[in-house]
Design goal:
Shape: globular
Strand order of the largest sheet: 1-2-4-3
CATH architecture: 2-Layer Sandwich
Distance between the termini: 20 Å
Strand content: 25-35%
Largest sheet: 4 strands, mixed
Helix content: 25-40%
Radius of gyration: 12 Å
Structural class: alpha+beta
CATH topology: Translation Initiation Factor IF3
Number of domains: 1
CATH superfamily: TusA-like domain
């Protein structure tokens, strides 16, 4: 992967322990509206939270959203996401 300009880091791990789709979608949409298109780094918990981020990206794939890279730690996943245009 070539070097990308990360415009914001969204730390979902620090957010409320309630891991509903509305919570994750809200944070992703808010960052998208604030940042516009570009790349963000998303820190999330493995499992349900990661799936919700992945589902959000899939939902907006036609508009250009994509997961550029994924790395994982013990219970944490770091995703670099290209936001939709």
């Amino acid at each position: 992967m070539s070097q990308v300009n990360i415009r914001r880091t969204l730390n979902l791990i620090r957010e409320n322990e309630v891991c509903s789709s509305n919570n994750v979608n809200f944070h992703l949409m808010r960052v998208w509206l604030e940042v516009g298109n570009g790349y963000i780094k998303v820190l999330c918990r493995k499992g349900e939270q990661e799936k919700l981020v992945s589902d959000w990206v899939k939902m907006l794939k036609e508009r250009g959203a994509n997961i550029i890279s994924r790395s994982e730690d013990v219970n944490r996943v770091t995703l670099v996401v290209k936001l939709p245009d």
